[in-house]
Design the sequence.
């Protein structure tokens, strides 16, 4: 006969009987049927599956409860994660046992896959658990089996019998071994589910910002485009102007910080499911078509109007492309294509621009290509010329210099300013083919490509010499953003120019990414205050105070100051009062062709050097 109780008592306190082989066979059939039922249970989440397994196991073995204990990676402790009674109660887990407090129990777990303690209060393997766990819980017998996942032991399934000792039959030990295998399978399945979820997240989530990526955006757009029910939807694409220069100047880590800051700001403005990050520095907002203008204003106020990296005083401007309605589209890719065209057109205009696609937007790329081809012909036909705009001393109204401004005398469209062609001209690598200018003492803007090598600077100095110009007669103007395009190389060449006697001016100061440190680092002679600050003086006290600070700072550094874009007497008077020494703008004189400038300003006029 097989002894099941060995003199133990049953759950209700009555003695157990000896079991005949026939009863043992019936017992095994019961356990086998329980395993069959568990093996064919419908799929569940990990928590529900564990509760079902443990409850069913406790019922099949007729024990008080069953539990799963997770073993720590260092194998020095186990912690209860799931615990269920035969009555179906889910008890609060969390109890922890350590190898320090129960060394013999942990040694037994390492030595065998199954620990069957028929009298847990006297078994040497469980003696360390008596006072701290077994007696307080009323546990008389234990049947513990190791759980493995991918060949590694991850925990223990524990069956706890209360009310005294109990013998564990061989079929019961086989049963709990099968239960442990099922538990391991559940955790393996859960691990695979988590891996697949992580893979799906990687496919649909941008790792840097946590926003949806291009793949996820296309899925969302596919579900939205062409929808005739509900309010029409629109797509807004945000591009950080000249972001690559942030990476060049401050490194990719700072660039990533800027991207995360933009993403976090957008998350604070819009529902996360409406946002996505495309490759690089472009972000997308999917929103109702009637909220486009409101959204653009909120984005600009929150991002373009603040310093994203406070310790660097680093702010950005944004170009925004808009697809006003998705209703007419029949696929996600055409929407995204048009959105990219829109933001591309916006970014090629002045910084901070907005462009909405219309019926002509499909021709934008073709028009740009035509413009580049026309520029080639214009260079051959000598259609480019310089116009000069006077720079005046504010005290004494004397002419102290002029800025050379490039113009294209288009045979059909008339005189065009650089805003209409300069981006294409620079990108077409034909900047060096422009005519050189010599003559009057000039302020000249140079492109960054002309300042990247010593050969380019030496060529420039040779041109001055050939024209009979002293280096001090030509003031080279650079913008803040020029420094972000291979900044260290350009800074070296600027020092080369300064050593040769060429004065340098910082143009459009305060509008780019450069920091105040450049004022001390560069051999500057002049600071030019951008017209955006000048235009806001008088109407905005903060703008007036900012101009005052810039002028005072330049004077303290020994720099002369030129205010740009002066268009009213009020602006002129304010600049005089603030101590500005020079200015230019339409109020003082418009740009003129060289011959007209010479006739109007030079002949017979008093020119201060």
Sequence:
């Amino acid at each position: 006969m097989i002894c099941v109780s060995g003199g133990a008592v049953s759950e209700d306190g009555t003695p157990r009987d000896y079991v005949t082989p026939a009863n043992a066979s019936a017992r095994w059939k019961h356990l086998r049927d329980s395993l069959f039922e568990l093996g064919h249970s419908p799929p569940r989440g990990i928590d529900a599956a564990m509760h079902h397994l443990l409850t069913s196991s406790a019922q099949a073995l007729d024990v008080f409860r069953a539990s799963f204990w997770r073993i720590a990676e260092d194998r020095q402790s186990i912690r209860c994660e799931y615990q269920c009674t035969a009555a179906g109660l889910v008890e609060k887990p969390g109890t922890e046992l350590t190898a320090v407090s129960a060394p013999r129990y942990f040694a037994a777990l390492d030595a065998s896959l199954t620990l069957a303690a028929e009298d847990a209060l006297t078994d040497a393997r469980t003696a360390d658990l008596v006072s701290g766990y077994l007696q307080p819980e009323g546990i008389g017998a234990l049947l513990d089996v190791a759980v493995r996942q991918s060949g590694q032991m991850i925990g223990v399934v524990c069956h706890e019998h209360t009310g005294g000792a109990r013998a564990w039959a061989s079929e019961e030990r086989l049963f709990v071994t099968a239960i442990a295998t099922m538990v391991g399978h559940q955790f393996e399945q859960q691990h695979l589910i988590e891996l697949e979820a992580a893979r799906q997240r990687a496919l649909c989530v941008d790792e840097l910002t946590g926003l949806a990526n291009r793949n996820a955006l296309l899925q969302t757009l596919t579900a939205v485009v062409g929808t005739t029910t509900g309010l029409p939807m629109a797509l807004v694409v945000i591009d950080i102007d000249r972001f690559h220069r942030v990476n060049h100047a401050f490194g990719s880590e700072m660039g990533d910080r800027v991207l995360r800051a933009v993403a976090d700001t957008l998350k604070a403005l819009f529902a996360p499911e409406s946002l996505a990050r495309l490759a690089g520095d472009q972000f997308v907002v999917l929103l109702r078509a009637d909220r486009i203008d409101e959204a653009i204003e909120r984005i600009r106020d929150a991002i373009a109007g603040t310093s994203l990296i406070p310790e660097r005083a680093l702010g950005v401007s944004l170009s925004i492309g808009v697809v006003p309605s998705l209703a007419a589209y029949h696929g996600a890719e055409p929407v995204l294509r048009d959105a990219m065209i829109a933001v591309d057109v916006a970014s090629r205009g002045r910084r901070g621009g907005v462009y909405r696609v219309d019926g002509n937007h499909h021709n934008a790329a073709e028009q740009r290509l035509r413009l580049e081809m026309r520029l080639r012909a214009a260079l051959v036909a000598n259609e480019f010329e310089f116009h000069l705009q006077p720079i005046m001393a504010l005290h004494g109204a004397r002419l102290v210099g002029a800025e050379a401004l490039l113009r294209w005398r288009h045979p059909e469209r008339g005189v065009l300013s650089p805003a209409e062609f300069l981006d294409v001209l620079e990108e077409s690598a034909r900047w060096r083919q422009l005519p050189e200018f010599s003559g009057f003492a000039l302020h000249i803007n140079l492109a960054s490509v002309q300042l990247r090598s010593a050969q380019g600077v030496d060529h420039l100095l040779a041109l001055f010499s050939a024209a009979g110009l002293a280096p001090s007669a030509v003031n080279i103007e650079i913008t803040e953003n020029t420094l972000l395009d291979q900044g260290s190389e350009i800074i070296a060449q600027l020092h080369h120019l300064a050593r040769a006697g060429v004065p340098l001016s910082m143009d459009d100061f305060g509008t780019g990414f450069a920091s105040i440190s450049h004022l001390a680092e560069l051999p500057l002679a002049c600071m030019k205050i951008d017209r955006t600050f000048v235009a806001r003086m008088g109407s905005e006290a903060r703008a007036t105070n900012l101009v005052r600070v810039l002028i005072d700072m330049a004077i303290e550094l020994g720099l002369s100051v030129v205010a740009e874009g002066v268009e009213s007497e009020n602006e002129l008077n304010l600049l005089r009062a603030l101590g500005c020494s020079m200015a230019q703008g339409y109020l003082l004189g418009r740009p003129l062709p060289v011959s007209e400038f010479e006739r109007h300003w030079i002949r017979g006029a008093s020119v201060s050097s």
Q: What stands out?
A: Residues 1-19, 429-441 have pLDDT under 50 and may be disordered. DSSP finds 19 helices and 21 strands in the chain. The two ends are 121 Å apart (CA to CA). The domain at 214-358 is CATH 3.30.70.270 (Alpha-Beta Plaits).
